[in-house]
Amino acid sequence: MNSETTNTEMQQQSNQTPAASPMADLGRALAASLADSYAAFLLTQNYHWNVEGPFFKPLHDLFEEQYQEMFLAIDDVAERLRTLGFYAPGTFDEFTSLSSVPDIASTRDGQTMVENLIRVHDVVARSFHRTAKFASDAGDLATEDLAVARIRAHEKNVWMLRSIVGGSRRTESKPN
Fold it and tell me: For 148-166, how does the pLDDT look when each residue is reduced to its tens digit (9 = 90+)?
């Protein structure tokens, strides 16, 4: 294998899973959920570093708590991909191509940060809903359980963030 071989090519070469199988679909969905999680993690850590304003301390602390939890979860998701025989994406190019989290302009305003993170956590929860469905279709209870745990964590983050800005609307994370 030459050094020009991409992660995707290595994954295709190393996996015996047919392109249209339930396991291949699950691998693609789980990789997308990993990319979405990483995007949410980076944004949350950025906000932790850069928040300003009258609510600096509580937001700084909340963002730190959330990004630390996501950091640990990202490792679990990547290791689950490896357990299933897939390579985990690990470059910014791979994450960008797989993620459905929109690129969000930088801000220093705490309220804008909270509103942005509500949208991002909702996207990530929907991503894990897709992964849970593919895991169920493939009969993979362990991955389904991991996806459900991530849904629960991101929906809780949506609730906590929405409560800060005075909204109590039910989470939108369930897919259409």
Answer: 999 999 999 999 999 999 8
Q: How many domains does the chain have?
A: 1
- Residue at 174 is within a domain: no
**H helix intervals, 7-140:** 7-14, 22-50, 56-83, 92-98, 110-137
- Residue 62 domain flag: yes
Instruction: Count how many residues are written for the chain.
Output: 176
* Global confidence as pTM: 0.84
- Residue 165 phi, psi (nearest 5): -95, 10
41: in domain: yes
* Closest to 41 measured CA to CA, from 12, 63, 15, 8: 63
Measured on CA atoms in the order 76, 77, 78, 84, is the torsion positive or negative?
A: positive
Q: At 86, which CATH number?
A: 1.20.1260.10
Residue 5 maps to a domain: no
Distance CA 33, CA 173 (A): 13
Alpha carbons 11 and 85: distance in angstroms, whole number? 8
Domain that holds residue 117: 19-164
Nearest-angstrom CA–CA distance, 76 and 103: 24
